[in-house]
Structure formats: C-alpha cells, structure tokens
Design a protein that fits this description.
73% of the residues lie in helices and 0% in strands. By secondary structure, the protein is mostly helical. The termini are far apart.
C-alpha cells in the first residue's frame, strides 16, 4: 500500500515539476527534506507520533522547510503531504520521484563490479563511458 501511495504523490510532483521545468530544483529540495527527516530521530518521532497534534507537525514542517530554503514547489508539496498525514511516506516518495525523474530525462542507473580496487582515473573513465 505504501508504494502505491508514494507512486501517486511522486507522480503528481514530477508532473508539476516537469510542466514548470524545475525538475532538478525539486529533486534537490525533496532530497534535502527527506535527508533532514532521515537524519533526525527527533523529527521522525514527531512525524510518526499519534500524540503530536497535526498542527504541531505542520509547524515543525514549516520550520524545517524555512531552514532548508527549498524551492517553493517542494515547500508546497511537503506541506500538502503533511496536511494529508502522509509524512511517514516521504522516503518512499523520494525514491519513487527519483525513478520517475530518471525515466523522464532518459537517465539509467548502472552498477559496476570490479575484482579489485580501481584508481580515480579509471573511475572517471568508466563514468565517461557510461
């Protein structure tokens, strides 16, 4: 169920970002917010707690967004997600957004396995070829 919810929210955000040509700015802002939540046990506790009133959660979201200085579309989106009580899906939304954004711009993800460590020069060469 969470992946379905995350897909729907991510698809809505990607469509909005694509229409306004702000895909990379939105990606960065969404990453910043999701990283802030993932990196803070306190934020996670607030957002997951049934004891914290919804208005308090929305206030915390506003504070975090103000500190991050994210793109306005990200601010609006995260506030909307918070209002719908879906903040617990923010990491899933981020991952779904990245998949959809990569598809939209024709970007593929590659994983290279080597038998031993390689130097930075060879790493750069691999990146260029991929």
């Amino acid at each position: 169920m969470s992946s379905i919810i995350a897909q729907r929210y991510a698809r809505a955000l990607i469509n909005q970002a694509s229409r306004s040509d702000t895909l990379e700015a939105v990606r960065a802002g969404l990453d910043d917010f999701a990283d802030a939540v993932a990196g803070s046990d306190k934020l996670q506790a607030v957002f997951l707690s049934a004891r914290v009133p919804q208005t308090d959660k929305e206030g915390v979201v506003a504070e975090v967004l103000a500190q991050l200085k994210s793109h306005q579309q990200v601010n609006n989106f995260v506030r909307f997600v918070a209002n719908k009580r879906r903040l617990l899906y923010i990491e899933d939304i981020r991952q779904a957004f990245h998949r959809l954004a990569d598809e939209r711009v024709g970007r593929a993800v590659a994983q290279v396995t080597v038998a031993s460590d390689i130097d930075s020069e060879l790493q750069d060469e691999l990146r260029k070829r991929l």
